[in-house]
Amino acid sequence: MTAPRSRTTASARETAGVTGADAPVREAGGRSAPALRGIRGWPASERPRERLLAQGPGHLSDAELIAVLLRTGTKGRDAVALAREMLAACNGSLPALSRLLPAELARRKGVGPAKAAAIVAALELARRMVVEPEGTKPRFRSSADAARHFMVRYRGLKRESFRVALLDSGHRLIAEKTVTVGTLNLALVHPRDVFRHAVAESAAAVVLVHNHPSGDPAPSEEDLRLTRQLLKAGDDLGIPVVDHVIVAGSRWYSFADSRRMER
Fold first, then answer.
1. What pLDDT shows up at residue 32?
2. Are residues 106 and 184 in the same domain?
């Protein structure tokens, strides 16, 4: 009759630097038995998903929470080990992880498109919780109000994104819409695409906003030409453009503050 297998706990595996499928299981007599595969081989009280349900998410480490999103690991690495590797590649920083593009995550061994999508979706929900608190919509009384509102939204973006903030008659935000993502030019940002949102929402005015991933908020010649074109279109429609703000990290440039709102 074969003696029961001894079970190595998660903490012991971590101390030894071995996790999941790499953790050997010894039978009586010292013989190595086939390794228990992945987190399913752990005691239920140590599995991340079961701990989250029983104790709450606050009891899990960052790697364990990511492992819940990953669901499975890969050959030789369980989901927790895979999550630790992902965090280590970002110096343990969740903000750095959130700045990775889905394609960059998907290229990591053992991740792929489905796991990458789950992680990006969770991080985006977390970001929205920060930037969209419950309560009244903000009022844009100055360029600083608009800049502060959009800085968090643009944080970590590696490509230019052109957005329009739709305002009521008191300059309170009705909605914000993304017009285009990518290098800005007159061909991509058409007045029709900007102002159709304003017409649909019965906006009284708009603020134009885009980012400079380079970190320099100074407007380019293309920015100047685009602003003039959209100013004229707004005048023709009776929906004035009250400012065009360029966000670059913690800095911004305001066309209104710089008195460059000439038609």
1. 34
2. no
